[in-house]
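User: My advisor, Dr. K., asked me to get a structural model of this assembly before our group meeting. I'm new to this, so sorry if the format is off. These are the inputs:
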Amino acid sequence: MRTVSRTRPREPAEPVPDAARGIPDATIARLPVYLRSLTSLCDRGTVTASSDELARAAGVNSAKLRKDLSYLGSYGTRGVGYDVAYLRYEIARQIGLSQDWPVVIVGVGNLGQALAKYAGFRSRGFRIVALVDADPGRVGEALEQLRIRPLAELEALVEQHQVAIGVITTPAGAAQDVADRLVTAGVTSILNFAPAVITVPDGVDVRKVDLSIELQILAYHEQRKLAHLATDVGESA
Amino acid sequence: MRTVSRTRPREPAEPVPDAARGIPDATIARLPVYLRSLTSLCDRGTVTASSDELARAAGVNSAKLRKDLSYLGSYGTRGVGYDVAYLRYEIARQIGLSQDWPVVIVGVGNLGQALAKYAGFRSRGFRIVALVDADPGRVGEALEQLRIRPLAELEALVEQHQVAIGVITTPAGAAQDVADRLVTAGVTSILNFAPAVITVPDGVDVRKVDLSIELQILAYHEQRKLAHLATDVGESA
DNA sequence: TGGGATTTGTTCCCGCGTTCACAAGCTCTT
DNA sequence: AAGAGCTTGTGAACGCGGGAACAAATCCCA
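Assistant: The format is fine. Below is the predicted structure of the whole assembly, which you can bring to the meeting.
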């Protein structure tokens, strides 16, 4: 009975991409935070930082930070810490920020406009190459050196600019249709701000940001605080 | 060994708060999604729905949905399903949406404006009662029947409107200071859109929404897709 | 009234992520 | 040159959440 790759999730025979193979999702979600902290330290002239310092800057546990970084490789020096500039470069590279990502925004309402004007995207490796809206009254309007395009041109714009990432800021009702069209046109990653559940084929990544839900989660905790207060008072009586 | 149908792990002596004691965070985060699905079904005239139907509408597994709902209590009927309107009311109540939550927005830039204009908040139990900005040039400007107030009035506004939830949409540099002042003024829940890690005392909840980070996570997966494509081609050769 | 069909509520198990704790390894001083 | 003092990288333990599977409970129909 040979121990073929069955019951063996990871093969130690991999040449290099071994590190990139299985970075946990939870770690991926934190890498951008580390990146931001490193950039901040870098700008301040810091050359070296320990895991403890980095962890404090990023708002996490130092053990977690070390384990996260260990998935990328061994970029620290024992007894010293991490070279800030080097680590920053490595994280940026492995996240995929050494290149510029063209992005299309569909739905130029309040939120779509705000995103289009937000300078933080450009400085972090994302370039908004097209704004699309279904409202004919808004088509043609200029915004941040871009002219709003009609929904009909969506597919052409995606292909023309080789867009891989689409942002949906439409009303809920239009979200699924827009998502379908984005996927058909070749987009394989979607950031969905519409308050709707959208389904996509395998191989397409969707991340959802729902502002109302965030507030509702806070409201739940607020209510619990009030309830706790009440029972505490009751108990002390 | 009698198969007594009891073996009850829960004490039936508790009045009500037993259920509310330990709802997992992951479940809390999904309840608003269920709520939205239920509202949608309700508007469509649906009276009863099975866990399978609800789960599909919410984009989750039916077992997960049943378990989530079981934390709230037994609101379903075996062999039938859930009463849509009743379940909707119960979730709304337990989340804390039977009351209106006053909210203050600090930082009326692109995003702050978009949030102020967003109608979805009001319809979901949140009322924006104040807009605050540090820029004297913007103070006084009217937005959605609210006049932008100077940062100096923050504390007074929080107290006046009994604000428990604050939204930070300032630049990163101002976020920690604003958070400190919000907390001092009595705010115990913060929704932070600023690309900065903010620290708050125990008992204060912070949720962070970082748009750049969401895109960066997508970028990582995009890059991996490209890499996979390359290695697949290589392997097939 | 009883049996079958249906659907919930729950238990059990598994895998992921977090945290602790420590060995390995580097630097600096004496 | 050797040891003291740090700091990283990681093995192991633990707790939480997800999913399958099943028993309990309700409805429907003959």
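One thing worth pointing out at the meeting: Chain B has nine helices and eleven strands.

User: Perfect, thanks a lot.
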